[in-house]
Amino acid sequence: MNTEFALADNDCYLALKARDARFDGSFFTGVTSTGIYCRPVCSVKTPKRENCRFFHHAAQAENAGFRPCLRCRPELAPHSVVWSIQDASYILAHQAARLLDEPEVWADAAPSVEKLAARLGVSDRHVRRIFEAQFGVSPMQYLQTRRLHTAKQLLADTALPITQIALMSGYASVRRFNAAFLEHYKLNPTQLRRKGMNGSSNTEGSAGTDQGITIRLGYRPPYDVAAMLAFLNKRMIDAIEFIADSAHGTVTSRTLRIDSGGKPHSGWLRMRFDEVRSQLVLTVSDSLRDVLPLVIRRVRAAYDLDADPSAINSVLHASFPSGDGLRVPGALDGYELAVRAVLGQQITVAAARTLAQRMVGQFGEPIQTPWPELTRLFPAPAVLAAASGDALGQLGIVRQRQAAIVGIAQAVLEKRLQLHGGADVNATIAALKELPGVGDWTAQYIAMRALRWPDAFPAGDVALHKALGVQGQKNPARQAELASMDWKPWRSYAVIRVWSGAWSGAPASTPLDNKTSAIKNVAGRARKTVATALNRS
User: Fold this and answer.
1) Which is the catalytic residue, given 38, 42, 52, 69?
2) SS (H, E, C) 336-402
3) pTM of this structure
4) Quick check: is 461 catalytic?
5) To the nearest whole number, what is the mean pLDDT of the chain?
6) What's the mean pLDDT in 346-351?
7) How confident is the model over 8-18, as pLDDT tens digits?
8) Is 38 a catalytic residue?
């Protein structure tokens, strides 16, 4: 077994026996008597201990000759996203895996070890060596498993043609697609679809132009669903999104535009949490079927479904004992999030929402959906890049923010700015801060929500200053930065917990620098101010 794996084999078996959803996606169990590998939450009879082999990644299980279970469906498990401040090889290997997991990184070219190495700034030989040392498989074997899992989910949950699924999953031809399935699963795609439909956990239908395409996405508990929905509801913009109750629970709906391969795609999404199964139920309009894998990836990021609460809470629980289930709200469209972040500079959430509402009404493109609440798309980059100062000023947007919005739109339109989880974080933050009207707070906020960077920290945030008791000091941003060191590498999650009012005022797990000892002495005085202080956009 890989030496990085946090649980011993006996611990894995105990988690398997308990069907503990907290470990879903953290390991997979290969059963030697059946040749099948499962998630720890699988409902089948628990296998004997001597028949179990444990793997940190599904790719390792498949490389060892095991096939995925058709009942628990390993492709539904949350991804294993690990962040560390350990040795450089560890970090580089996980960054490589993160890039392979991001379809938008490879929108213009098929991934390869050579291209991966070029993005990381190392040799392809070094990438292969450190990747195999950390994961036990090659980068291309890892990618192959991700592609097969994507295809397997689409086969089981949708009625899309197999030829289309092959192309959407990253295969250049149906022949290669069929060969990969036969080699790994001992079934061709048609047979797997038939078997998958029989054992599918999706009870709400699969596909249809009227009802859309419905699939399920797993996550690890605890997950504070109410807090996530409250965050989104407070920032909801009419005409492009709405939240309403249904017979199955609260449903979030919105419109979305995705540009992929130089072609625009637009449609609608509906998301609902199934907390009993620790899943998010996603329904996508048929008009977005060609970019369905990309939509799935964006939804996983927007709702932070791949977070590992145990790793995060091991660092943050002492300071935020009531925040264990909080996630970082991401973004379905990084460009949209960046524009909305600029609109929210130095004003309340309600005021920022009003400005965004006016912008959508003035510049948003009309769209037809099954719901009267969804009638527009967020303004496209080309539209805002060409918007005049007078037109933006009439909406109540001040001149400095006008320049920032136009600058972001132009940079995205010209592909000088990438705002997704696979972007280079430091380079993107630097590029954002070079734009007129974009400071460190806005750049860090965009990094936190659009780039999915778990260690973003808007040190100039007033709510953080109040929570840490540094607002009256000479350089509060610097003092807040120093005080936040014990929250690394999860400072984005710490920020969300401060903003939510979960801060306890507890000292950090390790002593702060002597220069910041005063912060510890006064931190408790700010507890009552957190809930009303935040509400940044």
Assistant:
1) 38
2) HHHHHHHHCCCCCHHHHHHHHHHHHHHHCCECCCCCCCECECCCCHHHHHCCCHHHHHCCCCCHHHH
3) 0.83
4) yes
5) 86
6) 92
7) 888 899 999 99
8) yes
